[in-house]
Design brief:
It is built from six helices and six strands. By secondary structure, the protein is an alpha+beta fold.
Length: 164
């Protein structure tokens, strides 16, 4: 596997604020009702909202399942990548979504990455091994009703030194 690269435009979004604004303008989010409300300093907490509207509703009037998943898709990978730093390769490896109840109103998802989890990943990857770690997020309505549970599995390892 080659070294992980970030595109030039994406690399410009070095601050949480710049990344939030850039992602909110990104067509896959901007045109699907997905809005990033918060990216904390240090990339340890992200909050995302998906509004229910005629454009984000399916045939039976509930939120599109694909939009619910899309609102959660990139954040665990971005948070872990930014928190571990350039010495690590971080990729999404697998995902699961469990739809618990119909999304009949606006929903939010909150992602929180702790120091303990980062230490666990660093320790497991210290010898060059690949680390496979699951992260979970609930998508909820304003009253706390769980609409979906999304799990993402990340692949993490130390970046290999170039051969030569």
């Amino acid at each position: 596997m080659s070294a992980q690269r970030v595109g030039r435009l994406k690399a410009l979004a070095g601050s949480p604020r710049a990344l939030r604004h850039g992602m909110n303008a990104w067509p896959p989010f901007a045109f699907t009702g997905i809005r990033i409300l918060e990216i904390s300093p240090g990339f340890r907490r992200v909050r995302v909202r998906l509004r229910r509207s005629p454009l984000t509703s399916n045939y039976v009037g509930t939120l599109f399942g694909g939009s619910i998943f899309a609102m959660t898709d990139p954040f665990w990978m971005l948070m872990v990548l930014r928190s571990l730093g350039p010495g690590y390769v971080v990729w999404d490896r697998a995902a699961e979504v469990e739809f618990v109840s119909p999304g009949r109103s606006t929903v939010t998802a909150t992602f929180e990455l702790t120091d303990e989890v980062l230490t666990e990943i660093r320790d497991a990857a210290a010898d060059g091994s690949k680390v496979l770690r699951w992260f979970g997020t609930e998508v909820v309505t304003d009253d706390g009703t769980v609409v979906a549970r999304v799990r993402k599995q990340l692949y993490v390892r130390l970046r290999r030194a170039p051969a030569g």
